[in-house]
Amino acid sequence: MSKEMDYTSPSVQFFHDVNSSRAFTKDNQNYINVLGVEQLNTLSGTSLLDIFLDANNVVEPHYHQNAAELVYCIRGSADVSLFNPFTKQLLTYTITPGQVTNVPQGWWHYEIARENKTHLLAVFNASTPDVILGSDLLAFTPANVMAHTYCLDEKKWKEAIKPLQPSIFIGPPQSCDRSYHRVNPYYQQAPYAYKSPYYYY
Questions:
Q1: What is the DSSP string of the chain?
Q2: Phi and psi at residue 157, in whole multiples of 5°?
Q3: Which residue has the higher pLDDT, 197 or 69?
């Protein structure tokens, strides 16, 4: 219970329709709804994202600097991948209805739907889930810094990221007209981990 909340106030909120608070829309099949303290002011230390995806759509690589995330599958199936910064391993877990994957605070991760009409619920231990997106890091880091740091060809790097728009959230973007398919995942056994599935466009 929040000590700052005046529960006698007429503005206190105990109910909210999450369907009415859209955080991001790619199209009618791929979108994210949000519930945080801005939508329901009695929330304290918890929030959620209600995620809807068709097959091969991706909640882009990102991390939450202020919260851990519990990803629960309601319908369909998804691969949840997270990078363990302590073991330097990319872990991938396929979840189906009733299964969860826990992503510790600040860990790089992403979700890929394996089926149409996949429905995921992401629960956070913060009143608002802050996020840093991979598309923003790539779009806003100067090309000369990337080229110098990683010994890359600056012109080729600029050309490679030229189509990239910031804040993709759900990829691939609608402007992407390349056909793609999903290959069968190959898992390489390793201590406490297995190799992530590869997706080729």
A1: --SS--TTSTT------GGG-EEEEEETTEEEEEESTTT-TT--S-EEEEEEE-TT-EEEEEE-TT--EEEEEEES-EEEEEEETTTTEEEEEEE-TT-EEEE-TT--EEEEESSTTEEEEEEESSSS---EEHHHHHHHS-HHHHHHHHT--HHHHHHHHTTPPS---EES-TT-----EEPPP-PPEETTEEPPPPEE-
A2: -65, -45
A3: 69
Q: Taking a C-beta distance cutoff of 8 angstroms, is the pair 71, 100 a contact? A: yes
> Would you say residue 162 lies in a domain?
no
pTM summary value: 0.86
Q: What is the CATH number of the domain that holds 115?
A: 2.60.120.10
Q: Name the maximum alpha-carbon separation found in the chain.
A: 62
pLDDT per residue over 72-112, tens digit each?
999 999 999 999 999 999 999 999 999 999 999 999 999 99
Burial of 15 (0-12, 13-18, 19+ CB in 10 A): exposed
Contacts of 13 (CB under 8 A, 6+ apart): 40, 41, 42
Domain count, the chain: 1
Domain housing 108: 18-131
